[in-house]
Specification:
The chain is α/β, with parallel strands linked by helices. It contains 12 helices and 12 strands. The chain is elongated.
Length: about 325
């Protein structure tokens, strides 16, 4: 196998026509399958394969093809599982070379590593790895949704689940949603925007859009979950403090076989009219002690935003409530 390479371009040539055909697969399916993992373009002419993309993607693709080439040379056919295994092997070797720590979450296509920045964040990641349902409760900016998204993408690219479902209640719209212009998705899209932001930060927009178009990643309001059973999926419920009791029960009973669920929320930021009806508040008592479910609590020390955010959260937590009479006196004055 001869190769000529330069930045953004790699050409591979194979002497044996049969080896090349078996490597490329029927209708070049094996090479097309690699696009699931790497942001590349490929062109095949006879025994020649040309790969175009950024340098890092090309290098990793070349390593995977070298692994597959060894399989074909032994006379074996290549299956999708062989490609998955080769990608994981290359990814692991690449990770060791860069000295990745065990507690990092590795996003395969973008080669982005997400590292927990606090003890609670580390406990959160460990809990998601070992439990089918994890509930993360704490203030904004502590990485609850972001880390859950990272774990979901990692699980998908490791073939642990076949799809990712992201949902949150559109409580801010209340009952006036129907009066807003546009289709239902256009109406609820602003309330789902934070989920898109986390996704696009880990996977480039083009790749993420393809996954959404194929239904691999579904982003939808909580109301759309009713009546469904979510099998072989990684499901994230964000802003769960704004789910009513019956909504939370509905969501919890959607969990199917070979699935994981992560529920996130901040019980100090409840937008429901009756805060006592929050499903997130309620499940802390109802689900306590159930095997397979883990609660992880965050504090202002876990905030990874601007340093002022930690101080602001701490100030709100320690403030003394103003007596009702004091409020009236202020108004009169």
């Amino acid at each position: 196998m001869d190769e000529k390479s330069e930045e953004g371009f790699l050409k591979l040539s194979f002497d044996d026509t049969n080896v090349a055909r078996n490597l490329f697969g029927p209708h070049d399916e094996n090479i097309k399958y690699l696009k699931k993992y790497f942001n590349i373009r490929a062109s095949i002419r006879g025994n020649h394969l040309t790969i175009i993309g950024n340098k890092s993607d090309i290098e990793d693709t070349n390593r995977v093809i070298s692994e597959l080439y060894g399989i074909v040379k032994k006379g074996s056919a290549i299956s999708p599982s062989d490609i998955d295994h080769a990608v994981r092997y290359v990814s692991h070797a690449h990770g060791e070379k860069e000295g990745l720590r065990k507690d990092q979450v590795y996003i395969l296509p973008s080669r982005k590593s997400i590292t927990p920045k606090s003890k609670n964040q580390k406990a959160y990641i460990d809990a998601i790895e070992t439990h089918d349902m994890v509930i993360g409760i704490g203030p904004a900016g502590t990485g609850k949704t972001y880390l859950a998204m990272a774990m979901a993408l990692s699980a998908y690219y490791k073939r642990e689940v076949s799809r990712i479902v992201l949902t949150r209640p559109a409580i801010e719209a209340g009952e006036k949603l129907g009066y807003l212009p546009g289709t239902m998705y256009e109406k609820v899209n602003p309330y789902l925007r934070p989920l898109y932001d986390a996704l696009y930060d880990m996977v480039d927009m083009e790749r993420a859009s393809r996954l959404i178009e194929r239904g691999v990643i579904e982003i939808a309001p909580l109301a759309f979950m009713r009546g469904r059973t979510l099998n072989d999926a990684f499901v994230i419920l964000d802003e769960a403090q704004n789910t009513a009791s019956e909504q939370m029960k509905m969501f919890l009973t959607r969990l199917g076989f070979s699935s994981k669920t992560v529920i996130t929320g901040d019980i100090t930021q409840i937008d429901l009219q009756d805060k006592k009806t929050s499903g997130l508040v309620e499940i802390q008592t109802i689900l306590k002690g159930i095997k397979g479910i883990r609660f992880v609590y965050f504090s202002e020390k876990d905030v990874v935003r601007h340093p002022l955010v930690q101080k602001i959260i701490k100030a709100y937590e320690t403030r003394k409530p103003v007596p009702e009479g004091g409020r009236n006196a202020e108004r009169k004055g």
